[in-house]
Structure formats: C-alpha cells, structure tokens
Amino acid sequence: MATMRSTRRPKTEKEGLGRTASVDSIKSNQDESNANRLGKTILKPADQEQLTEAELNEEFTRILNANNPRAAQNISRYNFKEKAYKTIPNAEHHVLHFENDGYFILNEEGKFDGIIGGQTLTTVVSNSQIPKIDSSEKKSAPNNEEVDENGEAVVEVKKATTKNQFNYSDRAAQSINHPFKDRSTNTEPPPQKTFSASVTQWEIYDSYIEDEIAKEKIAKEKAKAVGGEKVKGAKEESKINTLPTEAHNEDVMSRQELAKSFRILERMANQNTYEDVAQDYKYWEDASDEFREGKGTLLPLWTFNCEVDKRKQVTAVAWNYQYKDFFAVGYGSYDFMRQGPGMIACFSLKNPSHPEFIYQTDSGVMSLDFHKQDPSMIVAGFYDGSVCVFDLKRKSSNAIYQSDSREGKHTEPVWQVMWGPEDLDGNTNFYSVSSDGRVTQWTLVKNELLYTDIIKLDLVSGLQEDQDELFGFASASCISFCPNIDHLFVVGTEEGKIHKCSKTYHNEYLASFEGHNMNVYALKYNPFSSRCFLSASADWTVKLWDHDSSKAALTFDLSSSVGDVCWSPYSSTVFAACTADGKVFVFDLNENKYEPLCEQQITKKSKLTHLAFNPNEPILLVGDDKGTVTSLKLSPNLRKRRRASDDAPENERIEKIVDIALGLNVNK
To answer: Which domain of life, per UniProt (predicted)?
Structure first.
C-alpha cells in the first residue's frame, strides 16, 4: 500500500499574506519548475513583447484575504421575538473545497485500528519503534519485514479477532411473503326509534313521590331482614323523608301563568316562521316608486283567519288606539237566510296564526269599536238588534253590559256602533244605529245599561206626527260624528239619503244630502276637518261632501259596489275604499283628484267588505266575505308627507280642494 508524505520548506520573507515579490523572479521560478517537471524546453513566441529591466523589476502588491466573494450580502430574516425582519450583519465566508471521511475506528482498548470492512491495512513503523532482538532471535525469526526507500521497516500487522458491536456483516435471506386477503363483514344496523315526551311540573312531582315510595319499600324490606327494632327506625325515617302529597284538583291548563308561557312560545315560533314578513313590515320600501310618479302599490303582509268558524263573513274591523299591533274582527253574515252565531276575534300582528281573544256570541256581529281611552273595552252590535260591551281584562267570555227588550233593544240589525265622549257626570257612553230608524245613545251606569233615543229617522223631510207608525221610519245604516263639533253627526240610510243631525235637536234634520241611489254603506268625517266627509254606496260611487253644501264636491266611480271607505290618519287628502270585485283603491286628492294612485286586486273570488287604517303605521287591513283579513303596507308614494314649503294646515288643504270643486271663492 502506497504512503503519502508532504514536505514543506520554510517561508521566505517575500512569501506569505501581504508580502511583495518580484514579478520576474516569480515567473522565472515557475517556468523553471514546470520545465524540469515536464522535461520540456520552453519555447517563446517570436513576437513576444520584450520588457525592459525596469518593467521586469516592477513590483506588484497582491493582497489575499479570507472573504468569500460569492457570499450573500444584506440577508434579512424574520425575528419571531421582535416580530420583525432583521438584517444579519455577518455573512458566512467559510467555504469547504474538499472533504474526506476517515477509515479508522476505535477498538476496545482505546486505540485506533486499521481494520475496516474486514481488510488488513499496512502500517508504517519507524526504526525506533521496532524492538531490539538478539542475533539468535534474528536467525530464528522469519524475514517478513520489508524496508522502504527511507530505510524504515514495514511490518504487516494482523488484526486479532475482537468482539465489537460495530463490527458486523450483512447477510441476506429469502422468505415467503404472505399473500394479502380481503375480509369483510356484514352486520345488522342497530334499531332506531323516535322518542318524544314532555315534562311538566306535575309529572316531576309525581316522579319524586314514586321515588320516595320505592325507597320506603326498600327500607321496609331491609328492616324486616334485620329485626323488629330496625323496622320501627325505618318507619320513622320514611315518615320524615316522605313528601306531603296534595290532591290535583286544580285544572293546570287553566292557570294564567301557563297560558302566558304558551302565548310567549307561540309568538316566538311565529316570529321565526314569518321572519321575512316581519322584515317587510318594518323596513320594506318600494324602490320603483321613484320612477312611477303618481302611482303606488300595496304589499300584502299577513293574513288572519279564525279556525273556529270559517263560514262567517268579516262584518267589522277596528284597530286598538293604544296598542298599534292589536285589532278586533267581527264575524257574522250579511245574508239574512244564513244567520247564526257570531264571533269576535282579537288578533295581534305578533301572532298571526291564532287570535289572542275569542268571544262567541249568540247572534252575528255586525259592528264593533274600541274605546279610545280604555283599550280593553269593546262595544259590539249584533244582527238581532242587541248591543254588548266586553272587557278584555276579565277572564270571563261574557259581556259586562248587554241590552235586552226591556232596556231599549233595537228591533233590527245594528249596523254601526261607536264610542262617544263621556257625559257631564263622567259616565262612558256609545252610539248605535239600526234599520229600525233609531239613533240611540247608551250610557254605562254601574251594572246597568241605559239608553236614550237621539233621533228617529223619518222617510220624509219632517217627522211623522204618529210616532207609533213603524213603517214611517228610514233604515239607518251608518253614522259618523264631527271631530271638532261633538253634537254634530251625519247618518246614512238604506234609501241612499244622508242626514245631518244634532244631539240637541231630536225632531228634525239640520240638512239632507241626496246623492246616492242605493244603500249608503259607510260615512266617514275627515279627522282634520269638521266640514268634509266621505260616503260609500252600493251604487258603485264614493262621494266627497261639504256638510254646508247639499251638492257633492267630488264623485269617484269605482265600477263595483263599495263596501267601505276610510280616511288616512296621516294626511287629510288620502283615503282608501274597497269594492265587491276584490279591489282596493287609494286616492290622494292633493296629487290627483280624478284617478286613484293605486288600484290593486287583493282577492279574486271574494268580496271585500271592510277596511281600516292603522292609527300609527302605514298598514291597511282589509276583510272579505270568506272570513279572511289581509294586512297591506302602503308604498312611499301612497303615504307622502306634506312638503316643508307647504305651511298650510291639514284642514285647509282638504277644504281648499272641496271649495275649488264646488266653485267657491278660495281667496277669502
């Protein structure tokens, strides 16, 4: 095996880092060494430039440094401690040009072995390391030594067998690979069962009682097994732990707390069910109104039905004046051949699925009204001529006041009732009109209902001298009181006439208006003006009147029988009407005196009977002859507020329109 040695001569002053050397001496030394090494003669080209002695003796400075020119500069790395990128100041200039792994391993005696991979290595041994032997030993010793060129003996050292955990050999073996097998199982799925149950207060109570009884039985059995003395102790302990039992005589379903809880749960469920409708009720605005000047739409919201009796017609609709989401609906029939029991249902916009209150009546409900100051009081008029007063605060479904034949009961259907202001004694009173020709004032005095006939309508201009003649009276169908003059009111009749009356005059009319040819179904005074009122009739027309003029100011032909009409609570020039062909019309006299801003089909197979504006919100309720009440929201064009430049009061706006229509002087 060949050995490698390296000899190094001592450095001269001209060598080393930062030292200078003569260029010609360096070049000549290199050329001579190369020529001697290769055994060749140096041939110089003929055209080689000849340098002068001064140029050849010129010294050049060569500086060597340990910097790596290829090392990256300005390295930035992210510092997680400071949470920012930082520049690394010192780059790594160390370059590894050659690397060779050693082959010596450490033996058990702590010395290096020259054995690796089962091979014997040749070690160079100096003469000083060879032990001295005698001449006799030299003769007997085999001549196995070799001498190298330097005179040193080369001894072949054989490695003794040692136990080393790193000295191992690789062996290969062939074994059989077990084949893969697919195995699958089929099991029956566990049976499933849907279970539902309810937990109530009394069920929890009964469960505790049963558990105590079971514990008592176990205690008795243990006491019998032990002895008689422990039986007594077990009995005493069971008496102490046993809860007192109570008889469940009270009907739990009739408790007020349970009913309130059910009502809250029902409203929560309906809120989730009708969430999109509730969002429209609060925030919907028809964006197309900006591009349709003078036109508007009605958005249908909730529909209200009473499941108790679907064969009834909606005969009355009234909003509560204090609770803006609460209203009452009267159910009856306008067909005298299909009369039967009636019903009053009170709904809330928060619970459109079921009424909050239901009152069953013996006769069909024809009219109803909420009290303005006391929101729990409802007055209703019936087909049999009776009137009743209900109080929503009371748990009983019976009326607190009811008229009978001995207390001035009407002999014909009561078509309209309405609350009036309190009298001088502070008693609550209301008014009713009936087909028997009587306009009656009813007063609530303690537990008694007193009546007073304000006027009896006559078929002719003057009243009949014979008061006992029944057929001499006109059939009243509707009534409306002047908002600013308490004693003044107008009454509509089935003959088509409208009479202006006063509570201070019981025997004559103040004025009569002849403009309709058929039954007058509705009369409504303007809430902002004491002069103007509307009338709706079966002759397909709606008329606007000034009670100081016998001529109608404006007439609107709706091409169908008009069931009801009402003014809006936010503008003196806006009103709505419903017809028998299922349409709702909304007019704004300030925008257009001849055409409606909205004419929309609400139902196709039913007749619209009544409608009512919400006192606070732009919501309109419409009832039909199928027992359904539909809530509608007005678009922005149908509920425009008056302009800021218009300083005229609401009453002057409608009165100016009426004066122009009648041809009166409006510059007064």
So the answer is: Eukaryota
- Tokens matching residue 628: 């359904």
Output the average pLDDT for the chain.
79
The string of pLDDT tens digits covering residues 95-107 is: 788 888 776 766 6
Residues 558-613: tens digit of each pLDDT: 989 999 999 999 888 999 999 999 999 999 998 888 899 999 999 988 899 999 99
Q: What's the rounded Cα separation, in Å, for the pair 305 and 309?
A: 9
Prediction pTM value: 0.60
Rounded CA-CA distance 626/605 in Å is 9
What local confidence, expressed as pLDDT, does residue 74 receive?
A: 82
Beta-carbon-side half-sphere exposure of residue 122 (alpha carbons within 13 Å): 12
Cβ-contact 480, 523 below 8 angstroms: yes
Backbone angles phi, psi at 289, to 5 degrees: -65, -25
Whole-number Å distance between alpha carbons of 631 and 627: 13
In the chain, what are the domain boundaries? 270-662
Please spell the DSSP secondary structure of 188-233, one letter per residue: PPPP---------HHHHHHHHHHHHHHHHHHHHHHHHHH-HHHHHH
Using a 10 angstrom Cβ sphere, with 0-12 exposed, 13-18 middle and 19 or more buried, the burial of residue 446 is exposed
Q: Which residues pair with 351 in a beta bridge?
A: 348
CA distance 572 to 652: 9
At 30 the pLDDT is 61
How many whole angstroms separate alpha carbon 349 and alpha carbon 326?
A: 7
User: What is the C-alpha to C-alpha distance for residues 376 and 381, in angstroms, rounded to an integer?
Assistant: 17
Q: Compute the Cα dihedral for 599, 601, 607, 610 and give only its sign.
A: negative
Classify burial at 387, counting beta carbons within 10 Å of its beta carbon; exposed 0-12, middle 13-18, buried 19 or more. buried
Task: Single out the residue of 570, 580, 660, 572 nearest to residue 619, CA to CA.
Answer: 570
- Assign 272 to helix, strand or coil: helix
